[in-house]
Amino acid sequence: MNALDHLWARGCDFLGTKTAIMGGAMSWVSERHLVSAISNAGGFGVIACGSMNPALLDAEISATKALTGKPFGVNLITMHPQLLELIEVCIRHEIGHVVLAGGVPSGAAVRAVRDSGAKLVCFAPALVLAKRLIKSGADALVIEGSEAGGHIGPVSLTVLAQEILPVIREVPVFVAGGIGRGEAILAFLEMGASGVQLGTRFAAATESIAHEKFKAAFVRANARDAVPSVQLDALFPVIPVRGLANEGTRNFLAHQAATLKRFQSGELTKEAAQLSIEHFWAGALRRAVIDGDVEQGSVMAGQSVGMVTAIQPVAAIIAELIGQAEAAHAARQAQVPRTDARSHAA
User: Fold this and answer.
1) In whole angstroms, what is the distance from residue 192 CA to residue 189 CA?
2) Which of 77, 80, 117, 225 is the most exposed place for a label (fewest CB within 10 A)?
3) Keyword Oxidoreductase on this protein (predicted)?
């Protein structure tokens, strides 16, 4: 057994996989092709249900099963109006792991997952919430730092890991946000993580259905290009989303400014103004991922995008990450501690 096998044994046992590498649930990207590729390569693919209705999720799960016999999970958004029906779809398909994201899950949702025998995975953006989720029935946690792509919280993974990993031992904890190399995976495992979750590197994989222009934007980008959306005025809250800066992000600022003026002049009510701001990005992720509009669309990406240097098969990405982690561990083991010659003097 090598170092990684030992360090992520708990995560592998929980997921039922060879490696404790989860795929991040990315809308329009984490579908049957990428999910099955991650699972077939020894990782744990996760379907991003997003706004799918039960019939669409049912079809996506069936299609994924046709491509892999390995374990995979389903990510459901807690605010989805048909959440309990979506959970029923997962139960009918005997999905072994259900991830509830986007908020604190209701008691009814937790009971529905646990009563089915499936494992419940929840996101914990703070230690106090991590403890609460475990008490409510979470079987594992994901802590995701602000380095991640898509909707983000305010705290970096380096801080969350220090706050949560030394304290939470009852359930496996997977870390996410900004992870792009094996050395980082090794470091977090040594801190106490049971595994990791990656999204950005997999989004640009060969098996990803994302448009070639979307993938090319990832390859060109640097870490500093992945920025959170900016809120212009506290009166109109904006949930931060990290993505590549483009014409769309600049237009969003202009749209907020224009909407604020319309509100101040009495042309719009506060509710109408907020709705106008929230609707600006409607369909923008699909335009970027599926249609390849990387200028006006929302090119969601984490800061690890700077480590995406080529479009690679999923299996190659996972092998590269493992190779880097194992090499880093071997290098540490090879280091011989210096001794003070004076301590050996007779």
Assistant:
1) 5
2) 117
3) yes
